[in-house]
Amino acid sequence: MILPPWLGAVAAWSLLLAYVMGTASNIGAFYYYANVMILNSTGREISVLMLATIYTVPFIWIAWRDVKLSARAMLVMEGVSVSAVVAVMALVLFHHGLHGDSNQVHLRGVTGSGFRQGLVLALYSFVGFEGATVLGSEARNPLKAIPRAVILTSVLGGMFFTICAYTEVLGFGMSGKDLGTSNVPMHVLASVGGFPALGFLIDLGALVSLFAGSLAGITAAARVLLQMSHNGLTHASLRKTHARNETPTGAVLVTGLVAFLPVAFLASRGTSGVDVYGWLGMMAVYGFVVSYGLVCFALPGYLRAHHGVSNLATKTIPYIACAAMVYALVANLYPLTHDVYGKLPYVFFSYLIAVVLFSVFRSREQASMQQDLR
Asked: What proportions of the chain, in percent to the nearest 5, are helix, strand and coil?
């Protein structure tokens, strides 16, 4: 409503990329963690392509079948996962005692470069907090339920992340092991807490949480693609919804397939699940940061034009948030490395250029069709 059409298209396509790549990165993380658990238990590994397929098909089916089923499944899965994590964190804090960790409190050893890298990781851990906004009228009493969900997700998710990050660093300090090189960090924390059996439960919880995250990502991506189709940004066939399920069938299938194919390609080339998670997750971060930044930039104008609201808060807070997104993007891009991560920005910006060209071409085509009809 506020941004120029081509810039609005950039926001839409960036958000769609973010949800799809976030889902794809979770697939890579799943087959990595699943094979770690299987290897530790049996001494053997399973085909990563088979694991990725077994993982992907159910969440696409659930997203197609019923959004209420999707929401309830995500709630139960995340409840189990979070409960197990909270138990381990509580045990670690109990064993450490009531005194704080002065190294973390005083930011000892923190550098500018380390802060930039940590900011990217923290952003990726927090993105998707706005996922409830894509449901619209599918939610009960959406004008109250959706804002409440977004605000509580931000507050509670932020508190949970902060406490877990603090406790994890604390626990590894007590164990004498390196957090950066551990492939099963929750096993270490469970041992520090004096309850090693919880480590396996945490691993299961991580798999469940990844599945719930993929289900949420596809549910959101399909709704974004549906809205884009209604706005003329994609093919009109993606507007259709299932007669009985009332879900966007075509959009669910397209986003699910687009999330699965890059993972299948990378897995077939022997790429580890950790690299798939990192590479595709970084693409998701780029998409989220750009879409968030553009929304923040457009918000003051939207509030003024459509709601008659213009005050100090609406004139400053959105632009501060936009500046934070710009900083996060720059921190992610500079300095560029010589590995795959250094090439990903070029891939993302090429994607944006293609989006802009497609948007301009499509808008001209639609304008020409309207003129012919007249």
From this structure: 80, 0, 20
Cβ proximity of 284 and 17 under 8 Å = yes
Contact, 267 vs 106, CB < 8 A?
no
Separation in Å, CA 76 to CA 34, 69, 73, 284, 302: 20, 11, 5, 25, 37
Question: How many structural domains comprise the chain?
Answer: 1
* Global model pTM greater than 0.90: no
Residue 185 lies in a domain: yes
Domain that holds residue 146: 5-362
Give the CATH number, domain containing residue 213: 1.20.1740.10
Query: For residue 141, what pLDDT band results from cuts at 50, 70 and 90?
Result: confident
For residues 24 and 285, is the Cβ–Cβ distance under 8 A? no
Taking residues 61-82, what's their average pLDDT? 78
* 166-197 tens-digit pLDDT: 998 888 888 888 887 776 787 788 888 887 77
Q: Is 123 inside a domain boundary?
A: yes
Q: Does residue 168 fall inside a structural domain?
A: yes
DSSP secondary structure string for all residues of 310-328:
--HHHHHHHHHHHHHHHHH
Q: Determine the average pLDDT of the residues in 131-139.
A: 77
The per-residue pLDDT for range 226-244, each reduced to its tens digit, is 999 988 888 888 888 887 8
Name which of 320, 257, 290, 321 is nearest 12 in CA terms.
Answer: 290
Two structure tokens written together for 101: 């960790």
> How far, in Å, are 151, 176, 190 from residue 195 at the CA level?
34, 18, 5
* Residue 82 belongs to some domain of the structure: yes
Around Cβ 342, how many Cβ atoms within 10 Å? Answer: 12
Name the residue with tokens 């381990």. Answer: 88
Low-confidence winner among 37-41, 235-239, 351-355 (lowest mean pLDDT): 37-41
